[in-house]
Write a structure and sequence with these properties.
330 residues; rod-shaped; single chain; 11% strand; 54% helix; two-stranded antiparallel sheet
Length: 330
């Protein structure tokens, strides 16, 4: 799956093709500014079904040096297969378009940048044949733009600086300068750069700072970053509401159960009271008739909860000669 930083590191050159010429001075070369730029298909697949795609491909035309192709690759980590792929890209593009082809690799960490800029040859040591050595933009050579005026002079370059320094300590200062500069920019200029920067920061701690910095800009509330924040807030609020609703439902059910149980207990207590009263009546009749009542007889009568049985015993208590005979025929 393609990550947001990967997309930001190459799509920013589609957004502003002239960025490459402005970046080139930090890479130790002097590339003239283009007078025209055309985005080309990134599919480099041949007739044989081996799919190959470069991240971004631009045709840049200059006033003095003619046209050339710029392939931009976003590289998040070292990968042993990449130099061979880059060699294929440049050779294929040169063959297909018959134009000089430049390769720019954009990284976000020093180790990947150091690895990517090493020359790799496809032939034996004594016969290099084809050597690939891309230009590499990363935290080792991209400017640390912490002055809002400098950021305002080239907003796209400032955004790329923030993206390539996303994991560096300087990123907070870069983001503060960029957000200050963007406040004066038109929405159609600021909005894509807000989103490119957010994508490039991915889930790093600096992204929270970026959210807070751009939240004062009204265009933020229409952007992808705002939607992402809304989704997170919506999830948190949903959890809160779910807990509130659960508590409400629990209270409602508890009230309903309490009413049902109260009715059940009221009936049980009523039956128990009737049984106790009937047991007392049986004992009273036996005592009034002068019959001796043993502890076993008294216990059996007082512990009985069957209303029909107690009624039967009550009727017999009027005529039986002995208290023990109350239980006969029961």
């Amino acid at each position: 799956m393609v990550s947001p930083p990967h997309e930001a590191m190459h799509r920013i050159f589609q957004h502003d093709p002239g960025l490459f010429s402005r970046v080139s001075r930090f890479l130790g070369v002097d590339i003239p500014a283009p007078v025209k730029a055309t985005a080309l298909p990134t599919d480099l697949t041949e007739a044989n079904p081996v799919e190959r795609r470069v991240d971004t491909l631009l045709r840049l035309e200059t006033a003095d040096q003619g046209s050339y192709l710029l392939a931009v690759e976003a590289q998040g980590k070292k990968h042993p297969d990449k130099p061979a792929s880059w060699a294929y890209y440049t050779a294929y593009l040169w063959t297909k378009y018959r134009l000089p082809t430049a390769l720019l690799v954009v990284c976000q960490d020093h180790a990947t940048a150091t690895w990517a800029q090493q020359p790799v040859s496809c032939g034996p040591p004594q016969l290099p044949t084809l050597t690939v050595q891309p230009l590499v933009a990363g935290p080792h050579n991209m400017p640390v733009i912490t002055d809002p005026e400098e950021a305002r002079a080239d907003l796209v370059l400032a955004s790329l600086a923030a993206i390539t320094h996303a994991a560096e300590p300087d990123v907070d200062a870069i983001l503060k300068a960029l957000s200050t500069a963007l406040r004066d920019a038109p929405e159609d200029v600021a909005k894509p750069l807000v989103e490119f920067t957010a994508q490039g920061l991915a889930k790093r701690p600096a992204k929270n700072l970026w959210r807070n910095l751009v939240a004062v800009d009204l265009s933020f509330y229409k952007s992808y970053l705002a939607e992402e924040v809304r989704d997170e807030v919506r999830a948190a609020v949903r959890d809160e509401v779910r807990n509130e609703v659960r508590d409400e439902v629990r209270d409602e059910v508890r009230d309903e159960v309490r009413d049902e149980v109260r009715d059940e207990v009221r009936g049980e207590v009523r039956d128990e009271a009737r049984a106790e009263s009937r047991a007392e009546d049986i004992l009273l009749i036996l005592e009034q008739r002068g019959l001796g009542i043993s502890e076993d007889v008294r216990s059996r009568i007082t512990h009985c909860t069957d209303p029909e049985l107690l009624r039967h015993w009550l009727a017999r208590a009027v005529t039986v000669p002995k208290a023990e005979e109350v239980f006969e025929d029961a």
